[in-house]
Specification:
heterodimer; A: about 140 residues; Alpha-Beta Plaits; 2 domains; two-stranded antiparallel ribbon; 8 strands; about 35% strand; B: about 400 residues; 3-stranded mixed sheet
Chain lengths: ~140, ~400
């Protein structure tokens, strides 16, 4: 069982098709809606956490692509420059999903890209310019 | 020297250090020793406790002397990487302040501004050995005719580069929340509305001045770790206020003492001095400081033996009170609570996060411990900082 956070972009041609319903029915993956934004008749954006076996997740991802859904694996979007990070902890104030979390033993900030939803708030909070990458709503 | 009772003298401790026999522990290790063996035994056993802190410290900057040009110039305006340094000191001296931003910085015109590069970053770049563009202007005099000068330099081209920070290592500090209904971008970090989060900025039990709350051993002449090199305390810092609120032990419960520090940037490392950009606020400098505390008597063993659960700070509203200049405290919290990640306050469980690096503070205290073990002696303060009387409870 693994967990992957993905950003799905539904263009207007497909945004009213029941695609998410099919992933549960056909591939039996567990999904959890982390964020969603619908711009009526223009575009829909959903961040989903997908949980399942490697095979289930691969099939789901292929299915999304075949239906014309743009898909991005969020773990690849935000990076931390380890040479710049001083483990001050400022980013942990704004991270909503505990992708940046303080280890209470060492007090170091640990980064778990798998949990990241690429909101970009860490980049704003970091005084050291250690976080970089693309946020889902805007270039950061 | 202060008039406290000295049971183990500076001479005795320094002799042990020179002989490599001094017992040195960090301020994180000392509470364990005091807890298991008691204050008296801890005093007898330990000679020096090392402390550390690493965080954003405004009121920092550097005096730079860039040497005489040919023909000579009496620089009146100076810039480094387009960040203005104050040139009204002497012909080729200037002071680059940590919070000065680049001339063309958009500031908060689109709020919150990013404040990408400022004086703190210039200081980091110089220490890291990176190239920096120096620009100077003058009106020209008979003895200093040159009116404009521009050159790419590194720290090696500077005759002197002396970090001089008028206020560092705050003894304790506000803990921040936001009672307003909108998100705010402050020097205490991003604060969510209606107490959505709580931030703090102190190394707590490791913090230098919290280990010597009455400044008995810290004063002008104290030798310190500053930015990876040997530095010194030169005076009490600006805003130093010993008469701050104290608890029954004498420990300060709010921002109190500060120190002015000084050191040679050419010896420093950018591992311990970093430029900082604070979204919506401005630029600053992260500074690493460590101070060795000689355990001259049992009271010092007691204070260095206090831990995060014994040190309290005040919760201040940065949404309305602080900007208005209202000094009201909403309540008190210990560093142990703050460090746990959550604070229970007014019936709410509020996530807490630090702004100063505890891992770096620990690293500094450990490095300083090695220094002292290897012969770094304790500087005897020549001028004491203003303090208040101590009465034992």
């Amino acid at each position: 069982m693994k967990s992957v956070n993905v950003l799905l972009i539904f263009k207007k041609e497909i945004m009213y098709k029941p695609i998410i319903y099919r992933i549960a029915k056909d591939f039996d993956v567990i999904f959890n809606v982390l964020e969603a934004k619908i711009f009526p008749k223009q575009e829909g954006r959903i961040i989903l956490e997908l949980r399942g076996t490697d095979e289930q997740i691969d099939k789901t991802v292929n299915y999304f692509t075949s239906e014309g859904v743009e898909l991005q694996i969020l773990a690849d979007m935000i990076k931390r420059d380890e040479t710049k990070c001083v483990h001050c902890g400022a980013c942990t104030a704004v991270c909503r999903v505990d992708a940046l979390k303080i280890n209470r033993e060492t007090m170091e900030v640990e980064f778990f890209p798998d949990k990241c939803v690429a909101c970009g708030l860490c980049k704003m909070a970091c005084p050291m310019d250690a976080m970089s990458g693309t946020a889902i709503d805007r270039e950061i | 020297m202060s008039n406290i009772e000295i049971k183990k003298s500076y001479e005795e401790i320094n002799k042990k250090i020179k002989e490599g026999k001094a017992v040195v522990v960090t301020a994180e290790e000392m509470p364990e020793i005091v807890k298991s063996e008691g204050v008296k035994k801890a005093f007898e056993k330990v000679d020096v406790v090392t402390t550390g802190t690493f965080g954003i410290m405004c009121s920092s900057g550097a005096f730079l002397n860039f040497g005489h040009t040919k023909p000579r110039m009496r620089a009146s305006k100076v810039w480094l990487n387009d960040v203005e340094a104050y040139g009204g000191i002497a012909a080729v001296d200037c002071y680059i302040g940590a919070t000065q931003v680049r001339d063309d910085d958009p500031l908060n015109m689109v709020h919150p501004g990013a404040f990408k590069y400022g004086g703190g970053h210039v200081i980091e770049d110089l220490i890291a050995g990176r190239q920096v563009k120096l620009k100077a202007k003058s009106y020209g005099t008979d003895c200093y005719p040159l009116k404009e000068f521009e050159k790419t330099i590194t720290i090696n081209d500077l005759r002197n580069a002396i970090l001089y920070n008028p206020r560092n290592a705050y003894q304790n500090y506000n803990v921040a929340v936001n009672l307003s209904k909108r998100i705010i971008y402050t020097y205490m970090g991003i604060l969510k509305p209606e107490m959505g989060n709580i931030t703090y900025s102190s190394a707590g039990q490791l913090s230098p001045l919290l280990n010597d709350p009455f400044y008995w051993t810290i004063g002008t002449g104290t030798k310190i770790f500053l930015g990876g090199a040997v530095g010194a305390v030169t005076w009490h810092g600006t805003q130093h206020s010993p008469d701050a609120m104290r608890d029954e032990n004498g420990m300060v419960r709010e921002g109190a003492g500060t120190i002015a520090v000084c050191g040679d940037m050419k010896q420093m490392s950018s591992d311990f001095i970093r430029g900082a950009s604070i979204t919506g606020y401005g630029c600053s400098l992260m500074v690493g400081i460590g101070i060795p505390i000689p355990i001259l008597n049992e009271d010092l063993a007691f204070f260095t033996g206090l831990s995060d659960s014994d040190i309290k700070a005040q919760i201040i509203d940065y949404g309305i009170d602080y900007p208005d200049g209202n000094p009201r405290s909403l309540g008190e919290v210990t560093y142990a609570e703050l460090k746990s990640g959550y604070v229970n306050f007014r019936g709410k469980t509020i996530p807490s996060s630090p702004l100063s690096s505890y891992p770096k503070a620990r690293q500094i205290a450990l490095i300083l411990k090695e220094w002292v073990k290897n012969g770094f002696t304790i500087g005897v303060p020549q001028i004491q900082m203003p303090t208040v009387p101590f009465s034992k409870k």
